Amino acid sequence: MAQRSLRPEMRRAAKEAPVGDAIMSARDLSVHYGAFQAVRDVNLSFYENRITALIGPSGCGKSTVLRCMNRMNDLIPIARVSGEVLYHNHNIYGPNIDPVEVRRRIGMVFQKPNPFPKSIYDNVAWGAKINGYRGSMDDLVERSLTQAALWNEVKDKLKDSGLSLSGGQQQRLCIARAIAIQPDVILMDEPASALDPISTLKIEDLMQELTRNYTIVIVTHNMQQAARSSDFTAYFSVGEDRAGYLVEYGPTHEVFTNPKDPKTEDYITGRVG
Fold first, then answer.
1. What is the 3-state secondary structure of the chain?
2. pLDDT band at residue 19 under the 50/70/90 scheme
3. What is the average per-residue pLDDT within 244-263?
4. What angle do CA 80, 239, 267 make, to 5 degrees?
5. What is the pLDDT of residues 52-110, one digit of tens each?
């Protein structure tokens, strides 16, 4: 196949640090919505301080798999999850597992920025407050906004509404809100799809910085974004039964330059959508 141009300086798969153990893994993960099977038999691992991109056509189950990683599908009455999702070798769907605690450790940023109708300060502090944070809230807010590359832009207007910010700033505020509860993993469901190109690049740059402290899983339809930003890529497709399934998974530079499955090659070269 024709080699896709991947800028070496942006290719995170070539990190010097070795890949450690998987922080999360899906094992034989399947999801039904009522009688409809949305995802079948997914086996996939996510590595600490790395970015994994989930790519594939609409309806292939990417977002469904992402929501399984912190039990967000529990909020859908007709959803049924089978198989296992291991987090530090503990099945988050096991008995006596508190889904609220799961979501504290595995945060989520949604496709459309969704700041609360509160001040910038209270947007960041809210989750920490309800989780009983006992340290300096001022320090936590500043640290979270700094990590989200937003502090310098908002430090003089923390009492202003979060809704007063631009779209890109709102998304970074939502990332700061997720960071403030001090998770291990941050899930991002197309976090830049509603943003302009400049804001999109800021989010991508921010993800690179965040991997110093967090593991990131991102759903994206943007092939260039996956190639630029991720260490690993998982390509999903849709079977004849309309269930999403994992076609191929590996280091991003290998998936994009030497895919093992013809379906993957067809998708990333644009022959199928």
1. CCCCCCCHHHCHHHCCCCCCCEEEEEEEEEEEECCEEEEEEEEEEEECCCEEEEECCCCCCHHHHHHHCCCHHHHCCCEEEEEEEEECCEECCCCCCCHHHHHHHEEEECCCCCCCCCEHHHHHHHHHHHCCCCCCHHHHHHHHHHHCCCHHHHCCCCCCEHHHCCHHHHHHHHHHHHHHCCCCEEEEECCCCCCCHHHHHHHHHHHHHHCCCCEEEEECCCHHHHHHHCCEEEEEEECCCCCEEEEEEEEHHHHHHCCCCHHHHHHHCCCCC
2. low
3. 96
4. 120
5. 999 999 999 999 999 999 999 999 999 999 999 999 999 999 999 999 999 999 999 99
d(CA 170, CA 88): 31
**Average pLDDT, stretch 18-28?**
85
State the pairing for strand pair 22-33/232-238: unpaired
| 8/143 Cα distance (integer angstroms) | 31
pTM here is 0.89
- Residue 150 sits at φ, ψ, to 5 deg, of -125, -15
Give the orientation angle of helix 167-180 with respect to helix 120-130, to 10 degrees: 20
- Residues 32-48, mean pLDDT to the nearest whole number: 97
Straight-line distance from the first to the last Cα atom of the chain, in angstroms, rounded to the nearest whole number:
17
Q: At 208, which amino acid appears?
A: Q
Residue 220: what are its φ and ψ, rounded to 5°?
-150, 145
